Structure formats: C-alpha cells, structure tokens
Amino acid sequence: MFLVDGVHPRWPFWLYQSYVVAFWPIATFVLLTPIVAALGWIGVFSAIRERHQKAAALVSGLAVICFWLAYAAYTHAILAQWRYALVLAVVLAVFCAPGARVTSTFLNVSLRSLTLVAAAVALVGQGLITYVAFVDSGVLTRQLGMLSPIRPDQFASRAMLDWIEANLTSSSTVLFTPHVREQPYLSLYRGDLQRTGRIVSQQYFETRNRVHSQASLTSELVQKLKSTNYVVTSMSLRELGLRDALVRELVQPVQDSDGTYVWQGIRLRLLQRFGSNLLWEVIPAETSN
After folding, report:
1. From CA 283, how far away is CA 9, in angstroms rounded?
2. Which terminus of the chain, N or C, has fewer Cβ atoms within 10 Å?
C-alpha cells in the first residue's frame, strides 16, 4: 500500500526496503518507551551471553517474530505498522526486569533511580508524541500522531456521524474520501449508515492487491462525486500514519469568486466543520450553470 505501480512516490526503493526491515526493533523503543525497551534488549543479550536455559524459548521466539515481521514487510506481505510490532514489544517486555538488574549493577545505580529515569523519559516521550499529534504537520505527525492518547477534536467524528444521521434524508448519500475513511472512529461506527447506502466510502485500493495511483483515484472520486449529494474531506495528517503513499487529502477544493468551491470542475458548498473534517454539499451541474 506504500507503493504505487511498484514504486514509492517519495523514497528510493532501497531506502524503503531498509526502513521496513529496521522498523521492527526501532518500534519497540516507541511502544515500550526508550529506556524500557533498552532494558529489554539488554536483558535479551544478557540471557544470550550467559546462556540461560529457561530464557532460550523466549529468546528464540523473539528472534523468530522479529525475522518474520522483517521478512513479511520486506516482501510487502504486511505493512510496517505499530500494531504488528505489539507482539514483539510484549515478548521483549519479559526481559526488562533482568535487563534492569544488569544495568543497575553495571552503572552502580539503584533500581529505584533507574525506574525514576525510565518513568521520566517515558513521560517526556509520550508528551512529544502528543505534541506532534497536535501540530498535525510533517512526517512525525504521520508516523507518530496515531499513538497519541489525546488528539485535537477527538470527538468530532462522532459529532459528524450524529449530524449526518439527524439531518440527511434516507435518499441522500455522503462520500467519504480515503483520508476520512481511515479514521479509527469512523471505521468502527460508520457501518450502519454504510449498509443503508447513506455513506459511500472510497478505498485506496483499485483492486484487492493493487493500490490506486493519484490519477486513478482522482478519476474514481470524480465519477462518484457526480452521483452523490455530499462529500467529507479531511485537513488532518494524523490518520494516515504508515498506511499509504498518498500523504495528503486528495480532494482540496479552491474557492471561487461566488463563494463556492471547485475541485476537478465540480462545484462544492462548505456546510459544516467537524474538527479536521469538512462536510461539503455537491452542487449539481445544472444548478451551478
């Protein structure tokens, strides 16, 4: 899904392949926080060096999981996503206590002091993740924003679904662009409205195993907009994360002199803002003329 026609739009192929292999051990330093992950890896290498028989199964399991994730991502069977790295983080967490004891002895510091440092670094790290989620701009937001426990306008999607259900007739349809469709809350709760045909959600995939190029996705969105009443777009970068090669909202209307907006020759009227989500009314061609 990163690749369009087998090519990453922004990175050299060798860089992307290196990234998906290196992602998995690096991900543990984000998911477990830096100090805790470091203690875990120290515990792993300590168990290998001292040849602890009881730890052999866990060390072997950790190696197999890490290798499988790297291989699957390298062959594009899976994406380099945080959720897949959770299993690696869980197994690694078992080695944190032994790693802490080794580190405490080596540095001649107490376990209490080490715990306080780990907690302080964890809080700072989580604060930085929350900060980049609120900044909502750049590569760090795309990579880390989804991990923030607090997000700007985090209940806006619920308000939007309530508004759609209360204000739109059963014969009206709303198109969710792929950027909007990927939002976690909407992924969970749009189902009833989608089954009744009131919501149409556009996917990134052209076929089951092939992601859209920007040109093909634009073409499909234009065709669907001609037969729908409303469209929802997003101004946020937080929801994309590691999912796709199209890093920004594709439907970005430009305001015309009469106050309406135009995208690909289709006129739109801005109805409501729900946080980073924008609800537009599609103006029929005969009306706009």
Report:
1. 33
2. C
How far apart (Å, rounded) are the C-alpha atoms in residues 144 and 238?
Answer: 8
Distances (CA, A) of 197 to 122, 206, 266, 277: 45, 20, 22, 20
The Cα–Cα gap between 93 and 101 comes to 14
Start-to-end CA span in the chain (Å): 39
Residues 199, 244: contact at Cβ < 8 Å?
A: no
pLDDT digits (tens, 9 = 90+) for 151-190: 777 778 888 888 888 888 778 899 988 888 777 777 777 7
Q: 197 — alpha (psi -120 to 50), left (phi > 0) or beta?
A: left
CB-based contacts of 222: which residues, under 8 Å, 6+ apart? 264, 265, 266
Asked if 182 contacts 239 with a C-beta cutoff of 8 angstroms, the reply is yes
Residue 231 has φ and ψ, to the nearest 5°, of: -140, 140
Nearest in space to 23 (alpha carbons), one of 62, 65, 73, 58:
73
| Local structure of residue 5 (DSSP, 8 states) | T
Rounded to an integer, the average pLDDT of 190-211 is 76
Neighbours of 142 (CB within 10 A): 21
**Sequence-separated (6 or more) residues with CB below 8 Å from residue 213:** 4, 5, 206
Does the predicted TM-score (pTM) go above 0.85?
Answer: no
Based on the number of CB atoms within 10 Å of its own CB, is 236 exposed (0-12), middle (13-18) or buried (19 or more)?
Answer: buried
Contacts of 125 (CB under 8 A, 6+ apart): 30, 33, 34
Report which of 122, 70, 71 is spatially closest to residue 96, judged by C-alpha positions. Answer: 122
Instruction: Name 133's bridge partners.
Output: none
Strand partners for 175: 200, 231
